[in-house]
Amino acid sequence: MTRIACFFSTSGHSGVDRAAQHLIPALARRGYQVDLLKVRRHGPLLSAIPPGVRVIDLGSRHTYACLPAIAGYLRRERPAVLLSDKDRVNRTALFARTLARIGTSLPTRLVFSSGTTISIDLATRGRLERWVQRNSMGRLYPFADQVIVTSAGVADDMAAYTGLARDLIRVVPSPVVPDSLFTADLPRPDHPWLGDPAMPLILSAGELCRRKGFDTLLRAFARIRSQRPCRLMILGRGGERAALLALAAELGVAPDFALPGYVPEPYAFMAHADLFAFTSRWEGLGFVLIEALAVGTPAVATDCPSGPREVLQDGRYGPLVPVDDVAALAQAMLGTLDAPLPAAQLHAAARPYAIEAATDAYLDAMRLPRCPA
């Protein structure tokens, strides 16, 4: 039976984790044997191990230290494909395949994945780390059989920043939402701010950090709140929590602002909100934006690099505003609250990111049949 190996080393709650938690069971449902190669104390964490999936402990908490174990696994199991994600993991996968091939014929194809706008992501890193990753992608990634990314913006940025040929990079939609979500009747969460027609709820979600632009969202919300009754809720946790609460108090909107914390599956909150605001300064795709559209909630997004412009199809499925433009964001949110698009129209924007459709795209990129013979 055809075997696919997935090698990840993640935080446990990143976009890569969520994609892997959807992709791995979907591949197994198609009839593939899937091995999740795990760095200790790192994600992704599967809520349950489905039939056809093995979780293999690589014996170390450090990615590079797992290299001998991965090489041994490749020699022993000879999977058709080794799929990896993020630069350090990708480099380790390449070195492991090279080591495993010494003195033997190894058929394993190597597929690298990356999900961030690399030039912006590295801008705040140290000079050495920037040099290593830039040269790694430009000089080592051509030895992979395929490089896949989450959006065309990420692909263009990677090619321009690293020198990797653009035609070596393939855009593959991430498996973001279950197919059942498009028709699900989600119960209203037990929160007093949901379902109050007199006080529309603006919702956002993500790590409470500078990258997500929640400070800009709060300032735009304060403008809206001065014109009409409404509330703002942001789901997530992170280091900017105290700063956001202080800013809300400074702006005079603290009574109508809430930070409930991290919600593993925010679908029900999204479904019962009146508007979803996506305000990142940079991204690789924007999972929460896709999730909101999938449950039929109107959305507004910053035109950040990269992802929202592709997801919203140049503004067809929701307004795009410049990053950090408080006035434009406030105006777009007001306009969308007054004239939201119908849910059926919003679903169309999210359907390429449904799990089964995205799994088809992954299998095509890995040069495997959508269902093995």
The tally of helices reads 14
> What structural class is derived from the secondary structure elements?
alpha/beta
Radius of gyration, whole Å: 21 Å
Helix percent band:
25-40%
CATH superfamily assignment of the largest domain? Glycogen Phosphorylase B
The name of the CATH topology of the largest domain is Rossmann fold
Kindly report how far apart the N and C termini lie: 9 Å
What topology, given as strand order, has the largest sheet?
3-2-1-4-5-6-7
Which CATH first-tier class of the largest domain would you pick? Answer: Alpha Beta
User: Average pLDDT across residues?
Assistant: 94
Number of domains: 2
Q: Note poorly predicted spans.
A: none
- Please identify, by name, the CATH architecture of the largest domain: 3-Layer(aba) Sandwich
User: Looking at the chains present, what oligomeric state does this protein adopt?
Assistant: single chain
Residues in β-strands, percent: 15-25%
Please state the overall shape, judged from the principal axes of the Cα atoms.
globular
* Count of strand segments: 13
Largest sheet: 7 strands, parallel
Secondary-structure element series: EHEEHEHEHHEHEEHEHEHEHEHEHHH
